[in-house]
Amino acid sequence: MRERPAGHSKMQGRRRVPLLPSRDRGVDHGSARRTEGRRRYPGCDRTRLWSPEVSSAMGSDTIYLDNNATTRPHPLVVEAINEVLGDGFGNPSSIHGVGEAARRRVDAARSQVAELIGARETEVVFTSCATESINTAMRGVIDAARTERPRALITAVEHEAVHDVGAWLSSRGVEVVVLPVDGDGVLDMDRLDAELAHEPALVSVMLANNETGVITPVAEVAQRAKAAGATVHVDAVQAVGKLEIDVEGLGVDLLSLSGHKFHAPKGIGVLFVRRGSRSRPFVIGAGQEGGRRGGTENVPGIVGIGVAAEHMGAGIDARRAHLGALTQAIEERLQAIPDVRINGSRNGRVPGTVNVCFKGIEGSAVVLTAARDGVCLSAGSACAAAQYGGSHVLEAMGVPFEYLHGAVRISCCETTRLAEVERACEVIASAVSYLRAMGPSSALGDA
Predict the structure, then answer these.
(1) pLDDT of the chain, 447 residues: tens digit per residue
(2) What angle do CA 263, 63, 327 make, to 5 degrees?
């Protein structure tokens, strides 16, 4: 993979020739399925709220602030999944009544997800997770590229799934360019323009960073990339329910989602595939998902992500305001701790994510110490925690070494309460004081 130095409205029309079955956006062909889906799960009628009391089954002393790693399934999601596991066990490909009932459930969920992101139902593909969606998108675009040695652009702050696919592509002769970000974690648009001049086949960026919450100006990136003839993939895993996601306004060709990051179960993801996009299937099978993803559909997971999608599409303004207030409260309290820095653009982050570094101590030690008091935090991406050696995201942003290993991520959801973050900040401050008092044993080791 060719490394690049790391630096410290809606669009109109569709640009591709349709290859997949079309749907007239002026006619709601899915209205019957949407109505059916909402009758089955009345809690998604945007009138019933998920109260903190409903979600507090971890014990009164546990404060869960690791929602960027995974979220608790919504009670309505659990209810819907249990119903499917009991009576909705049919194979959606079967043509008898039990199979047809399962197919209707899958169709209803597809409509719910399509509505969440502003897509056609035929453009929604269900996968097993966002990692599969990312693999399908990136490898599928490169596989369909018409050049002898295609090029791909990714950024230095992408999730490990994107970087690992990039490394795999590079090992097979693809020229993968890693674009730098500035000290706030924002993509260097000048470098993007310079690389677009070389006509890459693929540009893959994230909408909201999983560690810092920094937002990428995806619509602007997509406009420039598509003008250069590139196919654009977006990792939108951390944006659901925090930002309005409209694939038409963003102008992207492919977009990945993960159910368990927005109160659906694990084991279910989504890949939006714009009609006419140049991409080939990754999982080949018996023609499910319109021939774009083989394998019998995970009906319980699909139903669950549909219910979660409808819930997350409701009340987004109130949710953003709540998460924004929590973010402000967290930052105000943690900034009172000596030798601390908040990472990421202050005005360009999704609400509910705070990434903070404490000078001279290990973030993992803070996380473990806080856990003894029932506060659940993260030292970075959960997917990289097992081999944690410092965040590649913060490194790309130029965070000084004495702060780099002291990173802690705090991530909230809509049921997080102000009293919980206030208590958590007290625990964090106490942990930092305790670890610093221990001296070198809690510092940065021999590095």
Answers:
(1) 544 444 433 333 333 322 222 333 333 333 333 333 333 333 333 333 455 444 444 556 899 999 999 999 999 999 999 999 998 899 998 899 999 999 999 999 999 999 999 999 999 999 999 999 999 999 999 999 978 889 999 999 999 999 999 999 999 999 999 999 999 999 999 999 999 999 999 999 999 999 999 999 999 999 999 999 999 999 999 999 999 999 999 999 999 999 999 999 999 999 999 998 877 777 777 778 777 777 878 999 999 999 999 999 998 999 999 999 999 999 999 999 999 999 998 889 999 999 999 999 999 999 999 999 999 999 976 555 445 568 999 999 999 999 999 999 999 999 999 999 999 999 999 999 999 998 765 554 443
(2) 75
The answer to whether the CB of 11 falls within 8 A of the CB of 251 is yes
Q: Which of 176, 157, 156 lies closest to 165, judged by CA?
A: 176
Cβ atoms of 100 and 243 closer than 8 Å: no
Residue with tokens 């003008």: 227
Six token digits for residue 365: 């030690």
Do residues 402 and 359 touch, judged by C-beta distance below 8 A?
A: yes
Instruction: Please report the domains of the chain, with CATH numbers, ordered by start residue.
Output: 87-313 (3.40.640.10), 316-436 (3.90.1150.10)
Q: Work out the end-to-end distance of the chain between its first and last CA atoms, rounded to an integer number of angstroms.
A: 26
* Helical segments of 279-315, H only: 299-313
Q: Which two tokens stand for residue 326?
A: 């929590």
Cα gap 346→354, rounded to integer Å: 10
Query: Are the CB atoms for 218 and 254 separated by under 8 Å?
Result: no
Q: Where are the alpha helices (DSSP H) in 118-258?
A: 130-144, 160-171, 189-196, 218-227, 247-250
- pTM for the predicted model, two decimal places: 0.84
Residues known to be catalytic: 383
Cα 388 from Cα 367, distance rounded (Å): 13
Long-range CB contacts (< 8 A, 24+ apart) of 53-62?
54/415, 55/415, 56/415, 59/374, 61/374, 62/374, 62/376
Task: In whole angstroms, give the CA distance from residue 127 to residue 137.
Answer: 11
